[in-house]
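Input record, target 12 of the design panel.
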């Protein structure tokens, strides 16, 4: 089936999920939607984010997607269940796949989760993990400064291992390390870019679980179960849509995705006008 898979996030973070989907499903057509006009979602009330989730999925459904990936932990925590109940199109979030990855990885059944304030306060990870194994204890910590650090750092090519960032990571992780977690979920789509920093700050024995890899696997499973994998082996089309500043999206997005983005559409959701920016 040639219809695209729709992927969305508050901004560019979900491109780490897109990158994994490209890796695992290299023939699928993809539309990526980054809601850069309203980023960050992390500090916003969950009901507000839920409204954004519905608005964006409606838009993607109009563009005939065959599956939607909510490539944002905060948006998944805020609205995945409600969206799945409302829309006919299958919708995959990032929380359950990571929870499954953690339950498989943990030896001592002590799992740590880091994410935005919205994700951590929603308790969505604890619920998802306990639904899979009620014997796992979940310890979580919000890391409110990481999203900004990643975005600024990606623009200036900063080395995330510099002492100031390392100390911040250490202070976020220390409470989790004290209770001897053995696996750590990177519960925000920006965090895979901090993997080396987080590995260093948490020590080598802790397994880091990224939403991106686990979610891409889930997309493959759902499409294959529904018989909807693309059969054509022709090069796929990647479309990028943003709600603000297409040039900024092109620059930062190319770094997140690890490949050059050359064309971005601007959509103002409220007005539904579509322009096209080509570099
Ligand atoms: N990408 C979002 C997530 O995975 C975090 C960025 C934001 O706060 O909007 O939760």
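The sequence produced for target 12 reads:
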């Amino acid at each position: 089936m040639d219809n695209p898979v729709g992927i969305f996030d508050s901004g560019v973070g979900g491109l780490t999920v897109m990158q994994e989907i490209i890796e695992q499903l290299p023939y699928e057509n993809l539309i990526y939607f980054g809601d850069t006009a309203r980023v960050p979602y992390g500090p916003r009330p969950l009901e507000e984010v839920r409204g954004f989730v519905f608005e964006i999925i409606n838009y993607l459904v109009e563009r005939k997607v065959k599956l939607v990936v909510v490539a944002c932990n905060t948006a998944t925590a805020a609205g995945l269940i409600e969206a799945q109940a409302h829309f006919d199109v299958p919708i995959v979030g990032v929380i359950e796949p990571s929870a499954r990855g953690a339950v498989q990885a943990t030896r001592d059944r002590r799992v740590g989760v880091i994410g935005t304030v919205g994700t951590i306060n929603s308790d969505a990870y604890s619920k998802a993990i306990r639904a899979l194994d009620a014997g796992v204890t979940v310890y979580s910590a919000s890391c409110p400064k990481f999203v900004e650090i990643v975005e600024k750092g990606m623009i200036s090519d900063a080395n995330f291992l510099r002492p100031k960032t390392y100390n911040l990571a250490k202070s976020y992780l220390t409470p989790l390390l004290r209770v001897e977690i053995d696996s750590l979920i990177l519960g925000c789509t920006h965090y895979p870019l901090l993997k080396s920093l987080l590995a260093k700050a948490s020590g080598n024995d802790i397994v880091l679980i990224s939403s991106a890899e686990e979610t891409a696997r889930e997309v493959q499973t759902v499409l294959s179960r529904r018989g909807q994998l693309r059969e054509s082996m022709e090069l796929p089309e990647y479309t990028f849509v943003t709600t603000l500043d297409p040039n900024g999206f092109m620059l930062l997005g190319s770094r997140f995705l690890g490949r050059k983005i050359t064309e971005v559409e601007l959509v103002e959701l409220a007005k539904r006008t579509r322009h096209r920016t080509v570099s």
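Residues 5-93+214-278 form a domain with the Rossmann fold fold (CATH 3.40.50.1860).
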